[in-house]
Here is the input.
Amino acid sequence: MSTTVQDVIAVLEGTAFERLPMPFSVAGTEFHFEAGALGTGLSHDLVLVATEQMPRLRLQRLIAGLARAMDVAGSRRPMSLVFLGKVASNDRTELERYARVLPIGTRTPNVAQIEQAVAVLLPLKMPAAELVHGSDPINEVLAVLGPATTSEHLALMNAAEDGPEAVRETLRTFTNDGAGWSDDEKETDDD
Here is the structure.
């Protein structure tokens, strides 16, 4: 197995794929590709790796035969072919009848090129939580208020940390103070 083929398998193994021993058997028929891997986590793909060294007609027959054998075995695994090197459009069209073709346009790709070619098979990388949720909302309000920040603003922001009921109580207190009411006064009905 060439170094670049090993690099493809190493990228896949790093994301919940398991290397297939070669040759492997499906429905009693052996298949020999340059390498292969099975998805074990979220992906259930059967991933095969081939290079320009494999004759095109042989590769087409292997893929077609494997697709038939998987049908006979009742497999529902999607099949993907990672191809190292240039693949002619008519060859690609024939291969795509049976498998998703993920070409890597060079025989000696770096890891970034491999990851880009097989990205559809890899789990999504999510940004860090702090980037998703933004910064602290209270700090954002303080930044907008700037020097105009008052003790009332600070009291409301402190109350916000304790929840909506604390904010309501703080607003009620401000309203009562502004109107000159105290908590001891009760409402009276005008008859």
About this structure: Residues 56-73 form the longest helix (18 residues). The mean pLDDT is 83. Residues 3-121 form a domain with the Trna Endonuclease; Chain: A, domain 1 fold (CATH 3.40.1350). The helical segments are 3-13, 56-73, 89-95, 111-117, 129-133, 137-145, 151-160, 164-179.
